[in-house]
Specification:
Layout lengths: L2 E2 L38 H4 L23 E6 L2 E8 L4 E4 L12 E5 L12 E10 L13 E5 L13 E3 L10 E6 L16 E8 L1 H8 L8 E5 L15 E6 L2 E11 L9 E5 L4 H7 L7 E2 L55 H18 L1
Parallel strand pairs: 8-13, 8-15
Antiparallel strand pairs: 1-13, 2-3, 2-5, 3-4, 4-7, 5-6, 6-7, 9-10, 9-12, 10-11, 11-14, 12-13, 13-14
This protein binds 2-acetamido-2-deoxy-beta-D-glucopyranose (NAG) (3 copies).
Organism: Salmo trutta
GO molecular function, one term: serine-type endopeptidase activity
Keywords: Disulfide bond, Hydrolase, Protease, Serine protease, Signal
Length: 370
């Protein structure tokens, strides 16, 4: 089954570790926004334009301040989920991060670079209110989105800024270049090493039709958005849940997805699944009355390669539930690992070999009986 990407420090951002080295600034922080004003600029005017992000597509290391909307949602001083700051007082995350809408015990950390040690730019807030999407489905993970109201607003700095959100008419063609950030596991079951720097990974959108074929027919709803590297090795993972997937358009960073679920992490042909932020503009708008988040329409040009995608091995694709390395090693290990990974001939794809094996056995038996 699909694993949700919650729990402490799990996840799979396999790219370079974000460096902690700060530009040599002393004392003063130069900002593009007026931080002394008690009112300050509206979130919609400053969203998605971090002054310290000079990311080039294909780049690897990002200094502190690259992803100033990244939040760590903590319980009992431990990281549980990611989140994103969307205005001065609201953080967006995934519904599956919360057992209930009781805000007690949560502590939201912003402006943070490492989970361990001192973070001079860090600011934390307790939570006044948690709004879980009323149609969140804990089994299908449909509508996996939640809003958290901070106990008091935060001031924007170079290290704490809101992200813009994908507006409802946004289009993300297959292959759209995206970035995911978080403190989750760097591989299945492997937490990020000390001092637990914020990780970033570059992934590409995988269209819903192809993603549905790969993750299991019927598993991907219109409210989901997939991304990954079909070759494997790049993905979000446990502990990244609730964190942002962002796309840059005309120098503005727009959040397209919320880390939601996946089969394992970074496995080949199993892209990660994200909540499709653009499906929720109306819902978000209905809960945030003042200092509205900035909604930006993301446009993909050209024809979406996914628009007429048909599952290559029929519409009934299912996913092997066992955490067994893929592709399977050859020759097969003996004794076979348990649970037996080469299920039935009705299982597709992975068990092609076993179907061939079974069929040839049948042929030999038929031959012998003649
Ligand atoms: C919240 O987290 C910050 C940073 O880890 C910590 O300094 C602070 O004491 C925490 N606050 C509460 C109320 O737990
Ligand atoms: C949601 O499902 C997970 C398993 O996927 C389970 O551990 C959890 O308790 C469920 N939560 C609720 C609120 O039912
Ligand atoms: C979608 O994009 C990925 C690269 O990100 C590519 O591997 C895949 O073949 C594309 N799908 C289609 C249907 O073109």
């Amino acid at each position: 089954m699909g694993g949700q990407r919650t729990l402490s420090v799990l996840l799979l951002l396999m790219m370079g570790v974000v460096t902690t080295a700060l530009p040599a600034t002393t004392g003063d922080i130069t900002t593009i926004v007026d931080m002394t004003s008690t009112v300050g600029p509206s979130s919609a005017t400053v969203c998605g334009t971090p002054p310290l992000n000079n990311k080039i597509v294909g780049g690897e290391n990002a200094p502190a301040g690259s992803w100033p909307w990244q939040a760590s949602l903590q319980m009992s001083d431990g990281h549980v989920c990611g989140g994103s700051l969307i205005n001065k007082v609201w953080v967006m995350s995934a519904a599956h991060c919360f057992a209930s809408s009781d805000p007690n015990g949560w502590n939201i950390s912003l402006g943070r670079q490492t989970l361990e040690g001192i973070n001079s730019n860090e600011v934390s807030r307790t939570v006044a209110e948690i709004i879980i999407h009323p149609d969140y489905n804990n089994f299908t993970k449909d509508n996996d989105i939640a809003l958290l109201k901070l106990s008091s607003p935060v001031d924007f700095t170079n290290y704490i800024l809101p992200v813009c959100l994908a507006a409802s008419d946004s289009v993300f063609n297959n292959g759209t270049d995206s970035w995911v950030t978080g403190w989750g596991n760097i591989n299945e079951g492997v937490p990020i090493p000390s001092p637990q720097d914020l990780q970033e990974v570059e992934v590409s959108v995988v269209g819903n039709r192809q993603c549905d074929c790969l993750n299991g027919a019927g598993s991907i709803t219109d409210n989901m958005l997939c991304a990954g590297d079909l070759a494997g090795g790049k993905d979000s993972c446990q502990g990244d849940s609730g964190g942002p997937m962002v796309i840059q358009q005309n120098s503005v960073w727009v959040q397209s997805g919320v880390v939601s679920w996946g089969h394992g992490c970074a496995r080949p042909n199993l892209p990660g699944v994200y909540t499709r932020v653009s499906s929720y503009q109306t819902w978000i708008d209905s809960h945030i009355k003042t200092d509205k988040p900035g909604f930006v329409q993301f446009i993909s040009s050209g024809v979406d390669a996914d628009s007429d995608y048909i599952c290559s091995d029929g519409p009934t694709t299912t996913v092997d539930p066992y955490p067994y390395p893929y592709p399977y090693p050859y020759p097969y290990p003996y004794p076979y690992p348990y649970p037996y990974p080469y299920e039935s001939i009705f299982d597709h794809g992975h068990s092609l070999f076993s179907s061939v094996y079974l069929l040839s056995t049948l042929f030999i038996l038929m031959f012998l009986t003649i």
